[in-house]
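Exercise: predict the structure of this protein bound to adenosine monophosphate.
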Amino acid sequence: MNKIVAEGLKRMVSPAEVARFVTEQKQKGKTVGFVPTMGALHEGHLSLFKRASESSDCVIASVFVNPTQFGDKDDYINYPKNIDRDAALAERAGVDVLFIPEESAIYPNGSDMTVQVHTKTDVLCGKSRPGHFDGVATVLTKLFNIVKPDTVYFGMKDAQQVAIVSSLIRTFHIPVKLVACPIVRESDGLAKSSRNVRLSANERKEAPEIYKGLQAGLRAAELGERNFDRLISTVKAYYAKHLILGKIDYVDVLNYPELKRSGASLDRHFIIACAVRYQSARLIDNITADTEKLLSSREAD
Ligand code: AMP
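Solution:
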């Protein structure tokens, strides 16, 4: 690979400047990897940057808290921000350009045109956050058109987003390859999230139970359970015992990446997913798995 000479992280605010930079890199024969984020970076984001810098010559990350994907105004206003810290972390993780656009640059005419997502949105976060994936698809279409990356990197933490962005890329013939990266967790199993800082001490203590509940569902599948409703009940029964402060927004089991059921039983690839609300943070988590690999993975334990 042909890494660009380390010149330190460049911060760019203007879409035109990013587009110019990418054109120059491509003229030099370099590949461009792109990682869209909303900032408040943590190890989850950094894993995407590292993955991108291993497989692309040049890595662009964006930090943009996209207003159109927030239904809840308070969540948008209170979204944690620290751009200097983000820039230092991004630089250490191999990012070459941090794109930090103003809202007016991304939405020059407000929301006069948007992308509407009609599939895979009636379940999971799409169901509890109406319009969220329209906002995500709209902003990503804009960012993909500005950056024109060869490859984009997304985390499986947002598995529904991965499924929808794959469809977006196919539907609009966007010439980019999507790489999905594994969920990074705290040592106690809690999925890393920018929203974890909003948990109280007691909520933080309880939150690892979210992943343990999903694992209870996975264990049932490993023991041969294939029925959607019974798998969901297993996870819900775990939460009924172990979540006191957190309120379940949803628990679901679906075929993945289709995000639907086919009959009463799982197909080969599936997702066990949930969202849990605490006082000031709604947390999501999931496990994706392949029924044909479940037994062999148990034998390897
Ligand atoms: P966000 O800043 O929340 O929009 O996330 C930007 C990207 O980082 C998305 O592709 C997320 O799925 C990914 N991401 C967030 N948290 C994690 C995590 N714990 N592990 C892996 N990827 C993550």
